[in-house]
Amino acid sequence: IQSGDYYLDRPVQIKTSLKRPVVFRGIGEQKSCLLGGICINGWEPFGDKLYRAYVPEVVRYGFTFEQLYINGRRATLARTPNEDWYTVKDASETSFVNGVRAADYAVQRVVLNTQDISSLKGLTADEASRVKFRFYHKWEYADADSGFVYLAGKGMQDWNPITAGSRYVMFNYMKALDEPGEWYLDHQTGYIYYMPLANEDMATVFCVAPALQHLLVVEGTEDAPVRDLHFENISFQYSSYLLPDNG
C-alpha cells in the first residue's frame, strides 16, 4: 500500500485465508494511514472566539459523532463545569418491576441544584434531548426549571447508587462551549463549532470526525479460521464510539 491517507467508507474485511502467509505492508518512509473518519475543512470565524464548519453529512444522512480530532489531538466535547464537577443534591428510586439484585425496571429522581444547571434554560427541545449528563453511574436528561433528572430503566445497584453528593458533569450543548479546545455539533444545521487553542491556525488544522466503529474486521469460523495475516508500516486511525441509548 503506497504511503498516504486513505479514508475508509467501510471496514477492511477479511473472511478467508490463503494457503500461505499474507503480508499487508505500507510502502514508503511514512506509514500508510487508513482513516475511519471524514476530514472537516472550510472553517470560518463565528463571533469573537469560535470557528465553525459545515458538515453536510450531518443533515443529509443523519451522521453523528461524539469525538473530534484536531491535529491528532482529541478535542473536548463542550462541557460544564470545565474543571471538577457538580454534586447531586438528593436522589430517590421507585421500583416497578422487581429483579434479583436490582429492579428490572425503575425510575430514579435525581435532584440537582438549580443554579448548577441554569445554563440549560432556553434550549430547544432538540438541543435539550442531546444534552448528556455523566454521573459516575449513568446518564439521562434534565428539567432545568425544576432541577430534577429522571432516569428510567434498570434499578440502581445497592452498592453503587446515585446519592446526595454524587458527582456529575454536563456535556454537548452550545452554552457549554466556553473553553479553548472544546467543540459542539448542531445536528439541526449541520454546523460544528470549535474554540481553538492559542497555537492553532484554523486555516491549516487537520480535523477528522470519526465515522466507522470498526476499521479492520477479520471473520473466520471454527472449521475455516483466518490466520497468518501480517500488517507492517500501516496505521489505522480514528474509530468512532457512540454512547448507547441506555447509557
| Low-confidence parts | none
Radius of gyration: 22 Å
Helix fraction bin: under 10%
The residue-averaged pLDDT reads: 89
Instruction: Tell me, briefly, the overall form.
Output: flat
Q: What does the main sheet amount to? A: 5 strands, mixed
With helices defined by DSSP (H or I, 4 residues minimum), what is the helix count? 2
Q: How many strand segments?
A: 24
Strand residue content: 35-45%
The arrangement of helices and strands along the chain is: EEEEEEEHEEEEEEEHEEEEEEEEEE
Look at the helices and sheets and give the structural class. Answer: mainly beta
- Taking the alpha carbons of the first and last residues, their distance comes to 39 Å
- Strand order of the main beta sheet, please? 6-7-20-19-10
Structure described in brief:
Helix content is 5%, strand content 40%. It has helices spanning 56-61, 125-130; strands spanning 2-7, 12-14, 22-25, 27-35, 37-39, 44-46, 50-54, 69-70, 73-74, 76-77, 79-80, 86-87, 90-97, 105-111, 132-135, 141-143, 148-153, 167-171, 182-185, 191-194, 207-210, 216-218, 229-232, 234-237.
Walk me through this protein's architecture.
The protein is 5% helix and 40% strand. The chain has 247 residues and is mainly beta. The strands form 7 sheets. Strands 6-7-20-19-10 form a 5-stranded mixed β-sheet, with no helix packed on it. A 4-stranded antiparallel β-sheet has the order 5-21-8-9, with no helix packed on it. A hairpin with a 3-residue loop joins strand 6 (44-46) and strand 7. The longest helix has 6 residues, at 56-61. The radius of gyration is 22 Å and the shape is flat.
